[in-house]
Amino acid sequence: MSDYPTPALYIDGDWIAVASGGSRPVINPADGATLAVLPLASEAELARAVAAAQRGFAIWRATPAHERHERISRATRLLRERADSIARIMTLEQGKPLAESRREVLLSADIIDFLAEEGKRAYGRLVPPRTNAVFAQAVTRVPVGPAALFTPWNFPLNLPARKVGAALAAGCSAILKPAEETPGSAVELVRAFHDAGLPAGVLNLVCGDPAQVSSYLIAHPGIRKVSFTGSIPVGKHLGELCARGVKRYTAELGGHAPVLVLPDADAAHVARLSVTAKYRNAGQVCASPTRFLVHRSLFESFVASFAAGAQAVRVGNGLNADTEMGPLAHYRRIGEMESLVEDAVACGANLACGGRRLPGAGFFFAPTLLTNVPQTARILQQEPFGPMAVVNPWDTLEEAIEQANGLPYGLAAYLFTRDLSLAHRVSADLEAGMVGINHFGVSQPETPFGGIKESGHGSESGQEGLAAYLDTKLTSFGSA
Fold this sequence. Notes:
The chain is an alpha/beta fold.
């Protein structure tokens, strides 16, 4: 397709269109057509990428923070100038509506800009010595070293931007491995840095067999930092690999976010907000609200408003101007959605709307709402990662909090109430790395994004995102 770029690897400042690991097609989820063929790296290309990152690190760590900021800012200016074309690439390969894709491009530029600014303020401190034999003790923050960055397909520019922006702002070099399903957006991110004059080797991009790439890069002594966004099982495995080399590790491993709706909330208003948040990106969002716990006094009206809103969502090709929800990213996700619905209904749940694949080409699934779902249903134990919501009633606040905290997930949680005092108390009891009160917008460039329990380790974005790529170093000066 003419408006989809030819994917390539990027190693040591060079674009590589043919690699020794073979190739795989990039599929348009809206119609199942092949967009392009992606070259895959083997150990030969991975070894080159690590060597390039080591050379790039020596250059970039010695570059003053203000100069790094200027080079990074050139890249984000290019991202904004190219927002329309990059958004189209993203929609073609991932499926989300074009307006969502464009917002993602612009937000990604904002995220990188914030991190680059923070890179100029990676302050240290002086510690007064205890003896006259020592006249100064300086604590500084230094870049940890070459970083391996692994990102999934649901936000093919936003998630690489968080990792690349933090690594480069801190003075680290990086090897980015985006999802093989959505390489085009990451290619355009790297292209912006290439065109901005980033020194060769500072940023590299590889794709390949995920297990082979991750095991090689993490084991390599030249890699000192690993960041991963993806599933809990894979995140645990990569964490084990990092532990063997005592390597810094940041992991964002998804969630199964609860939403508590208290009896004083406006049920119709909360339902409208919930429909928009739930079906954004076809529900393929790690912080997506999924388990709606609604006070019994509001339950029927909330369900009625939610179901009406879900049924009104316009599903279609993301390139169409009126589309509000695109396809799922993979064909295999269709089968998983169908299986979760079948299991829930078999357990006694009510299917209020959706629950089926939509006809025609592409990987489209109807916005789905399940109510009165027993705790034994698989969907209340397993993150659906799709356009599927569960609404259950509760009678006591203690019961609602217990259900909200009852899973090993702990990424995001949401609470709707007009009682500010109660909001403070309940939010303190919710086991999550991020809590949204009366809104769903918990992710901003300036705020940390991360979970607790099995939802991850560490944070991205905000000051915390930059700190993940910095080591603390003490230099103590004695009298000569």
